[in-house]
Amino acid sequence: MPFVPATELQDHVGKHLGHSEWITIDQERINQFAECTGDHQFIHVDPEKAKLTPFGSTIAHGFLSLSLLPKLTENLMLMPTGMKMAVNYGLDSVRFIQPVKVNARVRLGLTLLEVTEKKPGQWLLKARAELEIEGEEKPAYIAETLSLFFV
Questions:
Q1: What are the Cα distances from residue 110, in Å, to 8, 44, 46, 56, 77?
Q2: Which of 20, 29, 22, 21 minimizes the C-alpha distance to 105?
Q3: In angstroms, rounded to a whole number, what is the distance separating the alpha carbons of residues 143 and 112?
Q4: Which of 12, 17, 27, 129 has its CA 20 to 30 A from that of 38?
Q5: Torsion angle of alpha carbons 81, 86, 89, 95, nearest 10°?
Q6: 40 within a domain of the structure (yes/no)
Q7: How many domains does the structure of the chain reveal?
Q8: Interval 75-134: pLDDT, tens
């Protein structure tokens, strides 16, 4: 995680913070997510039925791809020096643009949009997160994430 003095966070607004590593979304991960959430819709967990859909295969749950945000941002998001803890503050928006097919590789691009000092020692960072699908023109989703850091 890149650390910068809190007074310098504002200097990074509007800047692209980089890309995560590529990860593969395999059927085992999709099935595990279905077990955790109880969402066993055939388009996610039944490869034979899913072959008959316009997608031609199973696809990851949209919320599965969204749930990867903490992992994919861990080496990208700026953190204020001296941070004691960070919490997920939510999302301002999410748009699922296209599904992630089984065995696709994805990575996250992150751009810092806003920095706000909510209270002394509490910094709210808003970022644009775009989940790219290898070989595809359109991303899986674009989200505006909110992270609250305590210094």
A1: 18, 27, 33, 30, 8
A2: 22
A3: 12
A4: 129
A5: 80
A6: no
A7: 1
A8: 999 999 999 999 999 999 999 999 999 999 999 999 999 999 999 999 999 999 999 999
